[in-house]
Amino acid sequence: MSKLEEIIKYNESFVGNKDYQEYVTTKIPKKKMAILSCMDTRLTELLPKAMNIKNGDAKIIKDAGATVMHPFGGVMRSILVAVYEFGAEDVFVIGHHGCGMSNLNTKKLVDKMLDRGIKEETLSTLNNAGVNVERWLHGFESVEESIKESVKMIKDHPLLPNDVRVHGLIMSPETGELEIIINGDIKDAN
């Protein structure tokens, strides 16, 4: 049975048994918060539990490394929509120790692309068009510094209102312990 078939089979039972009822809520986050976190599988359930977040409490945005890579990219767009359309008053950028994006070997990643059938010409075309693939894929050396950079990019965004608090935290993917890097409740926190 393929992964898709397995999911659909389970889903039919989930819907048929009305197991969804315990998750019914609105699209407006009750706690008026947006969370940017890493896509790490260890955080899927741990992060909400460690923060006392339940279904319907927050808008959760996930990407590799919990990073805002571009001020007008998809992550920032999601944060702005969470603020203006869904009433988020706080934004939490939550990285974690042992992140796979920390010191990511992009040369090895590109080699894996080539091994999986991506053509060298494709990489050359992208590089010639101004997209340095290895630089684009690069993560960061320090989780703490990456969080600070993402918080700064969010706080300094020309479309983010001044009354939105932006916080930066690091989580332990083993215990869920949170460490405050930037407290957005403190005026001019960097």
TrEMBL record:
<dbReference type="InterPro" id="IPR001765">
    <property type="entry name" value="Carbonic_anhydrase"/>
</dbReference>
<feature type="binding site">
    <location>
        <position position="38"/>
    </location>
    <ligand>
        <name>Zn(2+)</name>
    </ligand>
</feature>
<dbReference type="GO" id="GO:0004089">
    <property type="term" value="F:carbonate dehydratase activity"/>
</dbReference>
<comment type="similarity">
    <text>Belongs to the beta-class carbonic anhydrase family.</text>
</comment>
<keyword id="KW-0456">Lyase</keyword>
<feature type="binding site">
    <location>
        <position position="96"/>
    </location>
    <ligand>
        <name>Zn(2+)</name>
    </ligand>
</feature>
<protein>
    <recommendedName>
        <fullName>carbonic anhydrase</fullName>
        <ecNumber>4.2.1.1</ecNumber>
    </recommendedName>
</protein>
<keyword id="KW-0862">Zinc</keyword>
<feature type="binding site">
    <location>
        <position position="40"/>
    </location>
    <ligand>
        <name>Zn(2+)</name>
    </ligand>
</feature>
<feature type="binding site">
    <location>
        <position position="99"/>
    </location>
    <ligand>
        <name>Zn(2+)</name>
    </ligand>
</feature>
<dbReference type="InterPro" id="IPR036874">
    <property type="entry name" value="Carbonic_anhydrase_sf"/>
</dbReference>
<dbReference type="GO" id="GO:0008270">
    <property type="term" value="F:zinc ion binding"/>
</dbReference>
<dbReference type="Pfam" id="PF00484">
    <property type="entry name" value="Pro_CA"/>
</dbReference>
<keyword id="KW-0479">Metal-binding</keyword>
